[in-house]
Structure formats: structure tokens, C-alpha cells
Records
---
Amino acid sequence: MKYIFSFLILATISVMILSFRVNESYKQQYYMMADFNINDFTREIDFENFIEDYPNISVTTLPLAAIKAEYYITQNKIVDAVKLFNKGIKANPYIGRSEARLADIYFSYIYIKDSAIYYADKAYHLRPLNSKHFLAHLKSLAVKNQIEELDKSIKNNFSLLQQIDGKDQYLPTSMYFYLSTIYQYRLKNKKKYDSIAKQALEAFPNDEKIKIISNFIIFGKDSVQKALALDKKARGQLDNNNYKKAYDLFSQSVNFWPTHKYSLQLAGISAYLGKNYPKAIFYLEKLLEIDNPTDGQTEFYLYESYKKINDSLNACKYYNKLLLLNPNLVDKNTKGCD
């Protein structure tokens, strides 16, 4: 009986110690998970007393060693981070989080091609719909120069997401990397990669980085950059009421980047303000062929331009459209038309 009692006391003490560690870990995780969710690991932490072995995973199943490793990366202690990510793989070998981060390290910090490819592929096969893993996989294929596999992977990823009606906030990053990678191959199969770039523009219409790289593929990097430089100069002229000069610069920009909506609209508006109504109509009609702006500005200047050249039929057409889009732009004293 005496031995049983002693055993129970020792067991109770052990349980109390373990319970204390779990409780302390939960306190640490409160802050660590907050940092993880915003991807900010600049907080000063007590590295020596950070609990990572028992428990070894967080309440969300992330390995605690892997979370600790992120703080080491922020401090540029890459070797220590690598050790912890490897420890994280042992703690939870099923989610691929540590493998994806090791791939990042071997791609970006201490470039070791074989290790980068190994961990990138491992992370991807564990969770292919996690776009951080997918991005690492794309890098792996690019490093191996497997362009056909790269093309297949981006299509497969979209297909899988559609099957589950899934959305991934990091997918635009993967698409941007993919487009950046295939840019160097665009002239080998111009029709194919132009088509892919146009699909990307449709899929991510509000992503500025994808818009730029997609148009690099379609029109060439030099042409797009020249167009942007001309736009900047033209905007300055427009703001200073130099309408003819602004129009000349915006129209030159359109020559380099024919589908740039910004340049098309401002070329038309500048032409109108410079009383060149046929050119205003030309550029604004061209804009409406590729876009459907909803602010009514394009329709307003088309209405006014057609009115100036006494084309009542088209003036009425855009007057009625303007009433639907933005009636505030219509002069209340203007006589309506049927």
C-alpha cells in the first residue's frame, strides 16, 4: 500500500508538471499564433524558455518548432531555423508547412538546388491546394526548366480549386510567379502564352502585378514600360491644362500598349479638351470595345463629342447610357432625346 501511495504521489507530481508546461505553452501560443496570422515575427521572444517539445504542436496542429523558426529567420539565424523546421517535420509530417519553408530557405537564403527541389515537391504533394506549397512547386519546376510541367501545374491547380469551389488568397502570387517564369519563353509559342496571359487578366482583373506581367507577355516589357513612362509625362501635361501635348503623349502610349484602358480614356478626354472631337471619339469608342467602365466618364465625353460634331443620333445614344450610369453628369437643363 505504501508503494502504491508513493507511486500515486509521483504520478500526480508528473501530471502537475506536464499540465503546467501545457498551460505555459498555451500562454505563449496566444501571442505566437497572433504573429503567425499576420505574418509578423519581429516580436522579441524568450527563445530559451520557448516550449516546443511538450507539447510539440499548437492548438491548430502547427509544429511549435516551426513557429519558433520564423522568429529566427527574422533575426537572420537561418541555420537555427533550418534545424527547427526539420524538428517541425517530425512533430507533424502531414501538413507540409515546414517543408515549404525549408524550400523557401534553400531557394532564397542558402541556395542549394537539390534540397530546394526536394522540399518543394514534398510540400506540394502533401497539400497541393495550399498555394504557398504550390508556389514552391512552381519554383522547383522552373529551376528544373520543366516548362511543360509548369503549364500543366497551373491548369491543374485552377481545375482542382474549381472542383471544390475553392478560393485561395495566395493564388494570385502563384499566378504572378508563373507568368514571370514563362515570360522568357513567350516568343517560342507566342499564341499560347498570349492566350494564357489574357486568361490571367480575366481571372485577376484587379491585380496590378498580374496586369503588368501579362501585358509584358502580350506586348513586350519594353513597350509596356515606354507606355507607362509616356503616361506619366502625359498626366503632368493634362494637369497643367496642356491638352494638345497631353493628347500627343497619351496617343503615343496607346501605340506601345494598345489595350491600356487608362491611356485610351485619357487620350480621348485630352483630345476632347483640346477640341479634337473626332480623335476623342476614336479613342473613347476604342476603350468601350475592350472595357465597360461604370463611372459614366467615357459616355459623358462621347455624348459631348458627338454633340459638338452635330451627330444627334450617337449623341442621344450616349446621353441615354449616361442617364443609366451616372445621371449626376447630365446637365439638368439639357433637353432629353428619344
---
Amino acid sequence: MPIEINEIAIQMKVGDEADAAAKSDNTAASCGPALSGPERDAIVTDCVARVLRALQAQRER
């Protein structure tokens, strides 16, 4: 029986907890520089667009 997804909710945090963990543990690999607000928004917007395209492609099958 196929599964139909009518809605999807995506939540993510970029850098907040990972940066805190990396600072507290000196052996952890660095994740790079922190992202500014507009950079984060651009990444989130791109991710949402890609997920919506994937869902649309599944729906068209």
C-alpha cells in the first residue's frame, strides 16, 4: 500500500548546538565559520525548495 504525504514540516538549527559542542570539546572537528542570518535563510529556503520539488516529483509518478 503506497503512503501519501500531504504535509511535511521541517525544523532545523544551524550551528547553535554544534558550535557550543565544538567549543567545549577541543578534539572535535571545526564546522567552519558561523553563518549570518541571511546565509542561514538562504540555506533553509534552498532546502525547503528541494524537498518540495522531490515531493512534487513523487506525486507526479
